[in-house]
Amino acid sequence: LKLSDPLAALGQIAAGRSIYLPFLVSALIPIGLTIVFGRFFCGWICPATFLYELNTNFGALLTRFGFRLHRRRFDRRLKYGVLAVGALLAALTGSVVMAAIYPPAIIGRELYYAIALGGFGAGAVFFVFTLLFDLLVARRGFCRYLCPGGALYSLLGHFRLFRIQRIVENCNDCAKCDAICEFGLNPLRDGFGQECNNCTACIAVCPTDALTFRLQLKDQPDQGPGHLGRQYRRQANDTREAA
């Protein structure tokens, strides 16, 4: 059984301006899994994720020692532009240019260079720059704003069947889920969206089991304050007093 990264398949199709059916078929299983589970590749399979998570932990350590790290936010749609430009350049040049900035491809190439050639290439330098960008500018910034693979998986993840859902009756509004989400999403107010990679960090950190997986076609709209939180209780008391 042969499997291909959907981004690699897209890049080859664009560069060759034709569809090589076996290559496309080999990408169907990952595409199907993404439609079912969302952007799970980014959270569970991507070899760069481990390094980016270590980088995040290193940043947290620096913060504890008094270093101030920037946490800028950019437009998440930037990565869709990167994906579109990469596909266009592939079609114009006949080269899979997106592989030059795609972390899984970079890691694979650099490991080969290290083992076979005894050194590293330019990809290693680029990857170090992505780590510095994440550390000094925006938390998980490359994955959020620039990764072409993340863009493609997010688009496919829009249609996912398994989604994390907040059980508002169990929520105490502690906001630990928002704090731990490396993608800057808003689980506290049901703000998951197609960017969610189902990493389950928010589920693991929730002290009241207010987050769980559900089989559903759309994300829940904002359900408001958690029923175990102060804001909800205050609103409930105000409503009773007004009645």
Distance from N terminus to C terminus (CA atoms, Å) equals 65 Å
Task: Write the H/E string, N to C.
Answer: HHHHHHHHHHEHHEH
The main β sheet shows up as: 2 strands, antiparallel
The coarse silhouette is globular
**Total number of domains:** 2
Strand content: under 5%
* Chain-averaged pLDDT: 92
Number of helices: 13
Measured as a percent range, the helix fraction is: 55-70%
Structural class: mainly alpha
SS elements, strand count: 2
The rounded Rg comes to 21 Å
Strand order of the largest sheet: 1-2
Low-confidence stretches: none
Multimer state: single chain
Account of the protein in words:
The chain is mainly alpha-helical and 243 residues long. It has 2 domains: 6-156, no CATH class; 161-242, Alpha-Beta Plaits. The protein has 13 helices and 2 strands; from the N terminus they run ααααααααααβααβα. The protein has helices at 6-16, 21-26, 28-37, 40-45, 47-64, 78-93, 103-117, 122-136, 141-145, 148-157, 176-180, 201-205, 230-242; strands spanning 162-166, 211-215. Strands 1-2 form a two-stranded antiparallel ribbon. Helix 1 packs across helix 6 and helix 5 packs across helix 8 (122-136). The protein is globular. The model has no long low-confidence stretch (mean pLDDT 92).
